[in-house]
Amino acid sequence: MSVIVRNTGSGDIDGIRELQKRIYPTIPPWSSAHFEQQLEIFPAGQFVALLDGKIVGAASSLIVSWDDYGLSHDWKEVTGNGVFGNHDPDGKTLYGAEVFVDPTVRRRGIGRTLYAARRRLCRELKLKRIIAAGRLPGYHKHAQKMSAATYAMKVIWGDINDPVLRFQLLEGFQFCGVIEGYLPDDVESCGYAALIVWLNPLYRPGAPRPGSRG
Prior knowledge:
With 214 residues, the protein is α+β, with helices and mostly antiparallel strands.
């Protein structure tokens, strides 16, 4: 059966939280209140993936003014501590706050379908780009031998296989650098993240945008 991706609803929250707990046992899951506020602030940016009616993945995003952040930001700052209070309808950047897939059903195109939904939203809202900071889950195995920046470059060169960054590169994202202290609770990544960007080829500066205040 094919994967179905749709916008997240309140009835999906418990299932998404349970999936988060299984995938990230060392990172506290978002509370139900976090998800409710995300849905209230920017419902169009929240997606859930289902396979045979079961939740197998999810993605959360918000719109930001990227000039306010750059390489120095961390997850709490750019997501408003996960509640998206800093969501800016007039911003030009769709920021990927989170995306995850059930590891027991990988290789079914779930991640690709969630990323495609984000790109479609970016085009529909006539935004300039998608930016995200991706985990480097394999870095802890190499942290004693090399910097996170060197690790990321070796992944790009094909010398090391990091499943997250390699997947993002295959999805058309470009590597922009490494952020230190992005998510301190991420033990596997040693707190680091790879900053990535996808540019909307249909973006036209000054074009009217649905949902903006301009």
